[in-house]
């Protein structure tokens, strides 16, 4: 593992990643994602971005067989990296939503999704009825300036009782405040009986860092975490 920054990452890749995370407003960020769509998969390969693989493996581990008929919603699906990983593990009924039309176009070209819809999470409801999905994934989008942690009840709404939710976030310095807020929200929903935590796994080598400040000292990588929750089968009473 190369130490020091840039860690062999092309400057253009670093700049594109940084721009999206820095994007000031939501419309601005969605525009950046639209423009990034064509090179996104090459860039994340350079980053050694492992979240889609780690998330799909964790969900498959928790998920009871059979998988082929299970209906899954891939939220912030991007170009379909999570779908590839889920498909490899026997999941066949995949729906995706994303806020970027450019990303959805790439996802459509994979042929892995039965249904794809444009949806800006945090601003609008998911285009699905209540208790519709056996599992919901949000991989890579729960982060500072991206999808707010206030979307958790909406993710739960579309999940069947007993269904699974697979969420990831980064543990790098600029995302720690968001991660803390997310964990408070996750814990509140657990205490209220909405869901049960099955897994919270910290992963040291999540992806290559784009700067020295963000990197775990001496590694050139940032760390991240995969959470798996199961929606409680008995309806919970809203607090307050």
List the helices and strands and how they pair.
Elements: H1 11-22, H2 26-47, H3 51-62, E1 71-75, H4 81-88, E2 93-98, H5 101-110, E3 115-118, E4 133-138, H6 152-157, E5 159-170, H7 176-191, E6 195-208, E7 221-231
Parallel strand pairs: 1-2, 1-4, 2-3, 4-5
Antiparallel strand pairs: 5-7, 6-7
Helix pairs in contact: 1-2, 2-5, 3-4
Brief write-up:
The protein is 36% helix and 24% strand. The chain is an alpha/beta fold. It has one domain: 3-Layer(aba) Sandwich (Rossmann fold), CATH 3.40.50.150.
Structure, described:
The structure is a single chain. This protein is an alpha/beta fold and 240 residues long. It has a single domain (11-231), classed as 3-Layer(aba) Sandwich (Rossmann fold), CATH 3.40.50.150. It has helices at residues 11-22, 26-47, 51-62, 81-88, 101-110, 152-157, 176-191; strands at 71-75, 93-98, 115-118, 133-138, 159-170, 195-208, 221-231. Strands 3-2-1-4-5-7-6 form a 7-stranded mixed beta sheet, sandwiched between helices. Helix 4 links the parallel strand 1 (71-75) and strand 2 (93-98). The termini are far apart. Residues 1-6 have low confidence and may be disordered.
The CATH architecture designation is 3-Layer(aba) Sandwich
Quote the CATH topology: Rossmann fold
Shape: globular
Lateral strand order in the biggest sheet: 3-2-1-4-5-7-6
Helical fraction = 25-40%
Low-confidence stretches: 1-6
Question: N-to-C terminal Cα separation, in Å?
Answer: 50 Å
How many strands, which pairing sense, and closed or not: the largest β-sheet?
7 strands, mixed
Number of structural domains: 1
Rg measurement, Å = 17 Å
Element string (H = helix, E = strand): HHHEHEHEEHEHEE
Based on helices, strands and strand pairing, what is the structural class? alpha/beta
CATH superfamily placement: Vaccinia Virus protein VP39
Average pLDDT for all residues: 91
Number of helices: 7
- Beta fraction of the residues? 15-25%
Top-tier CATH class: Alpha Beta
Q: What's the number of extended β-strand segments? A: 7
């Amino acid at each position: 593992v190369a130490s020091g920054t840039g860690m062999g990452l092309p400057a253009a890749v670093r700049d594109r990643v940084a721009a999206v995370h820095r994007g000031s407003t939501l419309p601005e960020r969605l525009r950046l994602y639209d423009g990034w769509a064509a090179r996104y998969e090459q860039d994340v390969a350079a980053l050694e971005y492992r979240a889609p693989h780690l998330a799909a493996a964790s969900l498959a581990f928790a998920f009871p067989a059979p998988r082929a008929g299970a209906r899954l919603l891939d939220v912030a699906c991007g170009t379909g990296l999570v779908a590839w990983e889920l498909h490899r593990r026997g999941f066949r009924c995949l729906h995706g939503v994303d806020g970027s039309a450019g990303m959805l176009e790439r996802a459509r070209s994979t042929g892995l999704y039965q249904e794809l819809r444009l949806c800006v999470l945090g601003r609008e409801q998911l285009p699905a009825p209540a208790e519709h999905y056996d599992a919901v994934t949000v991989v890579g989008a729960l982060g500072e300036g991206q999808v707010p942690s206030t979307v958790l009840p909406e993710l739960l709404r579309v999940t069947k009782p007993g269904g699974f939710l697979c969420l990831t976030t980064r543990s790098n310095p600029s995302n720690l405040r968001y991660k803390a807020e997310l964990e408070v929200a996750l814990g509140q929903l657990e205490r209220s009986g909405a869901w049960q935590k099955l897994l919270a796994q910290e992963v040291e080598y999540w992806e290559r860092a784009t700067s020295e400040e963000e990197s775990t000292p001496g590694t050139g990588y940032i760390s991240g975490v995969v959470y798996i929750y199961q929606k409680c089968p008995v309806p919970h009473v809203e607090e307050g």
